[in-house]
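Service request form, structural biology core

Requester: graduate student, group of Dr. S.
Request type: structure prediction, single chain
Budget code: on file
Notes: please return the result as structure tokens.

Sequence provided:
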Amino acid sequence: MRGRRVARDRPPHRPAGVVPSDGRDLVSALRTRLGTLAGAAVLAVLLWRLGTGALLDGLRRIDAVTVLAALGIGLVTTVFSAWRWALVARGLRIRLPLGAAVADYYRALFLNAALPGGVLGDVHRAVRHGRSAGDLGRGVRAVVLERVAGQLALTGAGAAVLLTMPSPVRGAARHLAPLVALALLGALAVLLALRRNRPPARRTPPHRGRALRAVLGEAREGLLSRRNLPGVAGSSVVVLAGHLAMFVLAARVAGSAASVAVLVPLAVLALLAMALPLNVGGWGPREGVTAWAFGAAGLGAGTGLGVAVVYGVLGLAASLPGAVVLVARRHTGPYASPPASSDTVTVTPVSSAKHSANESARLASSSFPFSADPSEGRPMTPEAV
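Core staff response, request fulfilled:
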């Protein structure tokens, strides 16, 4: 009727500061809990089947010299990992000083090792870096690309090691390598054919195509540009070498006298297992795969379990400077933003500022137990590889 207002449906009132959740939050939380339970189950089965003798013996052998060696190896890998992150951020036109990157990387390493899931430090690093830079999406993509660079280096070097050096899986790897290569080439050919022959009405909408091209362009600038590629590749190689050195150190502490040539393929298998999202702070698949690999190589499954546990303890010891950074940052409060350099630009898109703040608040409140309020002008931290 004229003159009468029609009542419209209004969303239910929510208390201030509460961000609504959706099904994706539930799925993410369920996946994290299932991964944690799976990692705990792997550890329980290993201890039940193999006992604790070799494990406890390896832990008793850790002394001050071993801890100092782990701290030294951790310093090298952390500095080069932080440099790789700074290079990727520069490719995405985000300022990230090396000193801040090293401190934040240490903090993320500690959180990844101390908290379930093994990735919460990376989440915190991505959110804080994005918020401090004024572009949450770009900050998250910088962290993702940095991690991708490390995983690509591990995958490439690991494939070369497992195909050429004696290991329990060399025969299977040599048989599977041609099949995997053919499958990848076939999948690429099918995708190209579908893209070329797709009807115009079913092609990707223009805005989605532009977004995809923008993401691919950022990946190219962050990882493959002539300016960044040498540094990203070189730092990834140094980081991987540091993890292999830490594994050899753990093997010596655990009492294994196997040569480095025998241990390197086993270390690659352990590092690949650590990438599986079924762990408790990195524990679980690493211990299972290492115990199996040592047993298959004739070195004893119990010894393999001891090596993996000692490796985990040394990795936690190497990340302890991150606890100092965490405590210092929480007591010193916000810090000022350094002046922007001439070759990097901090981007603050007006249209996405509100969404970025809400999204970062949702991530911080739902998946991280510490405060994620932005410390102005500085980023955050991740983990090895």
